[in-house]
Amino acid sequence: MVTFEEVSKIYSDGTKAVDSLDLHVQKGECVVFIGPSGCGKTTSLKMINRLEEVSSGRILINGKDIRESNAVKLRRNIGYVIQETGLMPHLTVSENIAMVLHLHKWDKPRIYRRVNELLEMAGLDPDTFKYRLPADMSGGQRQRIGVLRALAVEPDVVLMDEPFGALDPISREHLQGELLDLQEKLHKTIIFVTHDIDEALKLGDRIVLMRGGRVEQVGTPEELKNSPKNGFVRDFIGEDQLSKISPDASISPLIEATPLTVQPRMPAAEVLELMEEAGYEAAQVVNRRGVWSGMVILNEVKKIARRNGQVDEAVRTDRKLKIEDATIRDAAQMLADRELPIPIIDESSTLLGLITAAGVARLTIHRLTRSVRPNTVPEQKTEQKSGKEWNRYDK
Amino acid sequence: MISDKGFFVLLWEFTSRHYDRILSLMFEHMVISFIALMMTLVVCIPLGIYLTRNEKIAPYVIGVANVFQTVPSLALLGFLIFIFGIGNDNAVFALFLYAMLPVLQNTYIGIKNVPASLVQSARGMGLKDMQILTRVELPLALPVIIGGIRVATVWIIGTAALAAAIGGGGLGRLIFSGLTQIRNEVIFAGAFPATLLALAGDQGLKALRHHLRPEKRALRIARRERRYEHKLTQRHALTVENAE
């Protein structure tokens, strides 16, 4: 589908951004370019839609040299997604998607139908989102729109230049999953640039690892992992593999069984006895159907017990995390504020278990013995984000 | 001619007797200002766009506009007498030179400030250079450009009063004749409408900018498109009915 033949890019100041790149991308394949910054991965991508011109060698799409066709025409038939800034801030979502369709001279009803269809495909309700401005959406939603815009005219080739780079890890993971699902249905030829090795391993049918304008190794994720050609490849993949358990991972591996659950109608005195006997500071209140109705704390149970009340009078529901979107960082922050265990519930409020300070400490020790790695920039960014989310739970 | 009557009485007498003259001078004032403003826009907006494509000459061109703006307006009128003689032509051209800077500079800066990533994204989608200008750069620079036009409008309407000094028309006539006759009510009858015009121009452009804000525009589009959707569903219902 896309073929690089001895392609080099030399800038006017003499720097060699890409050095005789040879690559054949199959139809329906997702090829990921990765490497340290300045390795020529983005330049290689931009040469395909002629945002950068090839200095020597040639690039073929469907066997045809891209320099033979008009650059504007070429670009209209290639999808292009960049970081979230690529959406026009002055246009509504539907106008943003329709922009490419207008260039292809589609008529209004057809554009109208296509925009609705695309939004539904991405799980965004057309009535809600069509007339919003990009500024009124989350980063993840914006980037979904960016991908939709690139797919609007069903191009055979889609170029993606770090499309999920600016997103928080949770939305990033969601969008990666959605892209995989989409690719399963549509079988586009995708050329993807990233600096995140996890993303490359997850999305790429093949990975092109570059350094200093040269290709170090091309291969499937397994090939790169199992038989790295040299030390650089091994380091590049190995280094980031260690960060798999990141502060932004799901809390599910931390969940422990709940030691003490009580029924809402139990007398407080009885619960107090149970708690004191076992030395628990807190207990979880769960009704007969397993629905979590809150947690009680020893001090408050004592007060209620003194006036012979029921345990549900002491229930508090502010301390909890939802399994679907909470991260290890959220849990750690809550525990740092107060050492009581955190109940974990799912969407239907079923109690799944607890996260305790001891559990988080065990994970930390586990990580420390595996790697000592400074935080990279994107992780620091998410720190503020998850801080915000955590506040939401706290309120 | 100094009268014993109070200022407001005099003003009332003057305006009720000469309201047709005041109105026609006001109209003339508006025409002079409008022509000068249009000249400014027609020259400076394309010139500003041109400068964003030829950055090297930009500082020089903006420098020249800056010089015209710095020369005292009355002096500028005086210089231009050598070219245009006396009358409205001279005044219009002087006003045009005088108001060039804000429009030119804001067009240039507004377009320069459009994020490069947006331009690149548009180019990557396959927009031609002209389409990038009209669909991305100009709409995004519009608030800044309108800001420049606002400043130019107020300057032009205010300075147009000086046109009378070199034999032109407009409300300046009343002001100058009031000054020579030492009649405050005549000065006021010229100055007040001129002020109103400037304020109205300023507020009108402010409202226009507000009207063009993306948020407002998105709401309008939503309303219009919903009507369109409604029509579609109705038509659909009709065809279904007919089929039945």
Q: What does this protein structure show overall?
A:
- The complex is a heterodimer of chains A (395) and B (244).
- Chain A is an alpha/beta fold and 395 residues long.
- Chain A contains 15 helices and 16 strands.
- In chain A, the strands form four sheets. In chain A, strands 6-7-8-3-9-10 form a six-stranded mixed beta sheet, sandwiched between helices.
- The termini of chain A are far apart.
- The C terminus of chain A is likely disordered.
- Chain B is built from nine helices and no strands.
- Chain B is flat, with a radius of gyration of 25 Å.
- In chain B, 34% of the residues are buried.
- In chain B, helix 5 crosses helix 6.
- Chain B is mostly helical and 244 residues long.
- The model of chain B has no long low-confidence stretch (mean pLDDT 89).
- Chains A and B meet through helix 2 and helix 3 of A and helix 5, helix 6 and helix 9 of B.
Oligomer: heterodimer
Gyration radius of chain A, rounded: 26 Å
Q: State the distance separating the first and last CA atoms of chain A.
A: 53 Å
Helix content of chain B: over 70%
How many individual β-strands of chain B?
Answer: 0
Count the DSSP helices of chain A: 15
Q: Based on CA inertia axes, which overall geometry of chain B fits?
A: flat
Largest sheet of chain B: none
Percent of residues in beta strands of chain B: under 5%
Number of helices of chain B: 9
Structural class of chain A, please? Answer: alpha/beta
- N-to-C CA distance of chain B: 89 Å
Largest interface: A-B, 33 and 27 residues
Which structural class should the secondary elements of chain B be placed in? Answer: mainly alpha
Largest sheet of chain A: 6 strands, mixed
- Helix percent band of chain A: 40-55%
Mean pLDDT of chain A: 83
Strand order of the largest sheet of chain A: 6-7-8-3-9-10
